[in-house]
Amino acid sequence: MCSTKLICPSLPNIPWQDRPAGCAAPLWRYQENPIIGRNPLSGVARIFNSAVMPYEGAFIGVFRGEQTNGIPYIYLGRSRDGVHWTFGREKIHFVDQNGGPAMPVYAYDPRLVKVEDAYYVIWCQDFYGASIGVAETRDFRTFTRIENPFVPFNRNAVLFPRKINGMYTMLSRPSDSGHTPFGDIFLSQSPDMEFWGRHRHVMGKSGNWWENLKIGGGAAPIETDKGWLLFYHGVTGTCNGYVYSIGGAILDINEPSRVLHRCNTFLLTPEEWYEERGFVPNVCFPCATLQDADTGRIAVYYGCADSCVGLAFTTADDVVDYILSHDETSEADREIGKR
Fold first, then answer.
1. How far apart are CA 312 and CA 219, in angstroms?
2. Contacts of residue 22, Cβ cutoff 8 Å, sequence gap at least 6
3. Whether 298 contacts 322, CB under 8 Å
4. Does the N-terminal or the C-terminal CB of the chain have fewer CB atoms within 10 Å?
5. What is the Cβ-side half-sphere exposure of residue 69, based on CA atoms within 13 angstroms?
């Protein structure tokens, strides 16, 4: 076993549950899953595919709230322990640079990432087609929209938690106007969070059954002394629809379009009732992690069957060792991603 160091602050109150006896999987589920069930607040039928982070000694998050009218928006949630959550009754109200209302037509699958002194919410939205929306907040009271980073069609944007070579860095998945029967992960950079370029290919689908249709970003990459640890989602097609699993890879710390290691098997795939049965069955969709530098513990938040939120656990050593022992990195993965 190698020793992997997490490059992050200490988080002594990280939610945690020890590995169950006899479990050899790289991720293990919280035994009280799901942590957020159906009809979590008035007017919202389901919360799933959501992101959380530490804040002021507790935890805060942005949550995909599927309203009872079918339109998704983003809601703010707070928790003392990272497991039990309370939500604002009103959806987050985004404003423009002048403080005027700037609500998206709809918003879903948010991520939440802190870079330096600012918190960024990134989500999928309508921009004359599916694309990416971004807002900045310093206090979780005012959420100011930033210019949309990309033209349609694009989904699954994930911001790195620090600048790389002086540039903001974001993963995304260019797509099409439908339900995206294809998709690779790309990387883009910006000096100011407004103008984006230096686009690079990171990695595409593989021949492994669980990610042979498309892949996409998941939680914000975690900095380690081995590289950027990435939890992403891989999709396969079956006679009964898509199946979403959680995969793992390690990206080069200074040139993250280069994949150093890529796991040839899933880290978590739908097996429990709340992952297999729901509004969209057979989905494990990672959107956020919490990590503690002192213990190496990692908590993974993931959407379950587009109906609820689950929590899984691992350690830096456990998951990195698993990726290394199941490494299957292609020549295309190892490229800088520029042609």
1. 13
2. none
3. no
4. C
5. 4
pLDDT tens, position by position, 312-326: 999 999 999 999 999
Could you give the count of Cα atoms lying within 13 Å of 68 in the half-sphere of its Cβ? 7
CA distance 285 to 305: 8
Instruction: Please tell me the distance from the alpha carbon of residue 315 to that of residue 295, in angstroms, as a whole number.
Output: 8
pLDDT tier at 279, thresholds 50, 70, 90: very high
Which structure tokens are listed for 271? 């097996």
Strands across the sheet containing 58-67: 44-55, 58-67, 72-79, 86-87
Residue 165's CB is within 10 A of a number of other CB atoms, namely 9
Q: Which amino acid is at 129?
A: G
Helices (H), the chain: 273-276, 316-325, 331-334
Q: How confident is the model at residue 1 (pLDDT cuts 50, 70, 90)?
A: low
> In the block, which residue shows the tokens 């490059």?
7
Q: What is the CA radius of gyration of the chain?
A: 18
pTM for this structure?
0.97
Torsion, CA 81, CA 82, CA 86, CA 92, rounded to 10: 140
The structure tokens listed for 75 are: 């809601």
Please give the Cα distance from 96 to 145 (Å, whole number): 5
Q: Which helix (H) or strand (E) segment is 197 a member of?
A: strand 197-203
- What is the distance between the alpha carbons of residues 73 and 103, in angstroms, rounded to a whole number? 10
Q: Which two tokens stand for residue 144?
A: 């100011």
d(CA 119, CA 137): 5
- Looking only at the bridges linking them, the beta strands covering 28-29 and 308-315 are antiparallel
CA pair distance 218, 207, nearest whole angstrom: 20
CA torsion 280-284-289-290 (nearest 10°) is 100
